[in-house]
Amino acid sequence: MERIAIFPGSFDPFTRGHAALVEAALKLFDRMVIGIGHNLSKRGLLSVENRKRLIDDLYAADPRVEACIYTGLTGDFAQAVGACAIVRGVRNTSDFEYERTMEAANRRLYPSLTTVVLFTPADVADISASTVREVLAFGRSAEEFLPAGIDITKYL
Ligand code: PNS
């Protein structure tokens, strides 16, 4: 049976760190559904549609990866796409505490779903979407933080 995992997040924008996690997760799962959580009360840098467009462009040639926008609980989204796992990345101890709590809530609510936490590779563990947003806000290119070939100005 095909093993599907979701990779949920804000992805505002999708970074090199996220891409490294997708690559790692594809060694464990047949398909990855990148879920862009739509938080209606939070206006981001990129619209959710453009976040999706960036990811779609990046993985256009890889049928194992797709991007979806979802609202509501991540566990419900996971079940709706037939996923058996939720993949999340951890860079450091502060990520860890947050992920621990989220995993526990999802375990209570969705006992059949497994959260798989992957360590972000060290060479990209300094990267965060919030740093990208800050760099861009000050007018600098954020190319080093973004997946190779992605021109962020096409999605702003
Ligand atoms: O990239 P982020 O901001 O760390 O992503 C966080 C996200 C969207 C994965 C998380 O906030 C989330 O899952 N939100 C939906 C509500 C939910 O299911 N919360 C966890 C169980 S209560």
Secondary structure class reads alpha/beta
**Residues in β-strands, percent:** 15-25%
String of helices and strands: EHEHEHEHEH
- Largest sheet: spatial strand order: 3-2-1-4-5
Bound molecules: 4'-phosphopantetheine
Number of strands: 5
Secondary structure tally, helices: 5
- Give the fraction of residues assigned to helices: 25-40%
Structure report:
This protein has a five-stranded parallel beta sheet, sandwiched between helices. It contains five helices and five strands. The radius of gyration is 15 Å and the shape is globular. It has helices at residues 16-25, 48-58, 74-80, 93-109, 129-137, and strands at 4-9, 31-37, 65-70, 85-90, 114-119. With 156 residues, it is an alpha/beta fold. The model has no long low-confidence stretch (mean pLDDT 97). It binds 4'-phosphopantetheine (PNS).
How do you describe this structure in short?
This protein has 156 residues and is an alpha/beta fold. 35% of the residues lie in helices and 20% in strands. The protein has a five-stranded parallel β-sheet with strand order 3-2-1-4-5, with helices on both faces.
